[in-house]
């Protein structure tokens, strides 16, 4: 497919700039953070002396891994059934004695999968709209479901309304899409939800696409493991400054991964430090006194409740963020929250979402609430705090609700900022000079630039 190398090159370009963006982000955080320098230095020194081996293991006691030759659709099932957002990818052909460098190929997560699905669908829709589908190598059925998802109401009506059968006919004949419109095309597009997951599992090229084939081009972050005896400061910096969502833990000289530390796990670990002087002196302060939220009103990306849920997922994809506040009106009063992991409802229960291309964000959230899939406090709820909330209460909300962000609102319920797991971790650490050279066993700068 001629356009795929271009997308891969674009991803490489984005990744090559990631270090400079991380440096800029961390400089901004440090300039906005209001923590006494002496306390910051004490915390940094303490985390530098705590070994990674002291961090609790994953709840199951065993890191869940996905084989590189697993079809993407099956990978989605594994992530969902295990209630995790990411997993390390293992090479099934690696010999038993191989070390981590040859055994593990990277990390797959929902974000990479969604990016791949949407870009593949856009490629398919663009190809068929210009009559070049055959040359692009796009398989039958692709545009019928995924083209509509990728383009929705923003794309050509002829593309969004194609049935899978019509798309197949166009692809086989190599002719323009508008010449094969079927009478039942609008209804087929409205049944997008029922077709979506089926396409990933049963249609080409999606059926044959493996995790390995999308791992490099669509990853959001590199695979950067740490050793058991590395410092926890290194892990905290990787999860905050360097924007990693998870850090694999390996034991030098042994091939198997021994732990998988996520942003969520670290913040839960911080909450368990309640009662310790160093934690309480920070946690008892109001977030505004600590400089939070680091992300201001103007920097918060939101979605109106009457916009299409499709646009919400596209905003997350385009801005490489995991969630959006759902707002209403010019003052942007918050009424809910959607996250990238909400896509699992679409993938695993497509019968809930007929007429998907016309579904608004509010309708999407209401369907989740009314479904049997909704348990406990879902990510749709407008979980917020006020600027005078304490850091301890924010950490407790993040951990008890199992969410990745909390939105800060004013007296009129207008969003004035957002606090993420990354921001919380950044509050507790800074990077001393030459840290990675002194404490880290691998060439981390080189790995982060890959």
TrEMBL record:
Keyword Repeat: yes
Pfam families named in the record: CBS (PF00571)
Domain CBS: start-end pairs: 58-123, 295-354, 378-438
Name listed for the protein in its UniProt record: CBS domain-containing protein
InterPro entries assigned to the protein according to its UniProt record, in alphabetical order: AMPK_gamma/SDS23_families, CBS_dom, CBS_dom_sf
Repeat among keywords: yes
Superkingdom of source: Eukaryota
Keyword terms: CBS domain, Repeat
